[in-house]
Amino acid sequence: MDALIGIYEETLPFHKDYFRILKNMMIEEETDSYILRAKTGWTRDGGKDTGWWVGYVEQDENVYFFATRVIKDRETRNADFGKCRKKITKSILKQMKIIERQFELS
Questions:
Q1: Residue 105: inside a domain
Q2: Burial of 55 (0-12, 13-18, 19+ CB in 10 A)
């Protein structure tokens, strides 16, 4: 989480231009009331699939950081596993009224 806070606050040892580029690349959703910035990740290790989605939502004067990790056995087939990390996170953010709506994921 420290890295996400460092990106948001621009306190990591990077040139200021790189923060602008990175933050623009991280935009997943932008509405009149919030900006959701995030990054996915995936690894296959020890017979497990591990997927994650980390980021933050800027809403008015508030910032909400999140990190979601999902794990399954590689032998277990689940065509929706790759999408579930975003779906779970957005569902929670919606329930918490941090984001307005839940978008369909492609």
A1: no
A2: buried
